[in-house]
Amino acid sequence: MTAPAPGQEPGNRLATLELIATIVAPLSLAIALLYYFGLMRSASFYAYFGVEESALGFTTVDYVRQSIDVLASPLIIFGGATLALLIIHAGFNRVATDDTVSSGTMMKRIVGVGTVSASLVLAAIVLPWPLYLQFPLIAIGLVLLEYLAAMIDTYRAKVGKYRFFIGFPLGIRRGLAALVVAVLLLVMSADVAKRQGQELARDFLANTAKMPYVTVYSEKELQISGPGVQAFNLDQLKYKNAAYHYRYTGLRLLARPPKKWVILPAGWTRNEMRAFVLEDSKAMRVDFGAVR
Fold first, then answer.
1. Is this structure's pTM higher than 0.70?
2. What residues make up the domain containing 171?
3. Based on the number of CB atoms within 10 Å of its own CB, is 39 exposed (0-12), middle (13-18) or buried (19 or more)?
4. Residue 117: how many CB atoms within 10 A of its CB?
5. Plot region of 133 (φ>0 → left; ψ -120 to 50 → alpha; else → beta)
6. pLDDT score recorded for residue 10
7. Chain centroid to CA 59: how far?
8. 58 and 48 in one domain?
9. Are residues 236 and 152 in the same domain?
């Protein structure tokens, strides 16, 4: 066997580190974004019931799992926009490489797509649409405008007398467009996450009959009250040797975070927002009742 050439091993190590960085960096960014979207969705859901989400102790895995639904709408929009751009690109290439097509026809195509792009951006800014519609339209319009600028740069000979100056260098222009689009998509996804949390909360309220009843037993008084809740002191009911001294009925289970119970009064309303977060411990027992 021959010994490795001088400097070969450090070079291999450097290549390995570069490979790891290439994989880890985008993966870390993706996990951070998923965590953020899941956090927004969860916080919006529990805020609807008056619960401070940070007290529930959710893990990174919990937030990432909740963010999957959030990304459905942005991915559909991104996929549709990409397909539309590919169709437009195929059309431009066909016109640009066809010697029988005049520069005037080429410019008509450019002006037409540019008008549509500018109209999308203007409509999104002027009209009172929700963010999850405004931001995708602005992003799509900006991408199309940048694409048109790139086509003009690429096919200047075809454009002929219609040449005009694109002020920024291509790299800077595309970098700015990518940054703006990324920010818009980020804000849009966060808005979608918040809306999904609120819609899920409203769905829970509309289907409270599907939420299981729970009865809470406790060694100490928990001060649980609200519409439909009944509290009993078991010592006063002649249960002298009972392991638990208090019982609370008329409750429904909202969620089961790690080592916690989030419960609502059976008669919970938005007018009297009262929810309870109970720590899971040996000093407390939770019994489930049949949904009816």
1. no
2. 10-206
3. buried
4. 19
5. alpha
6. 60
7. 16
8. yes
9. no
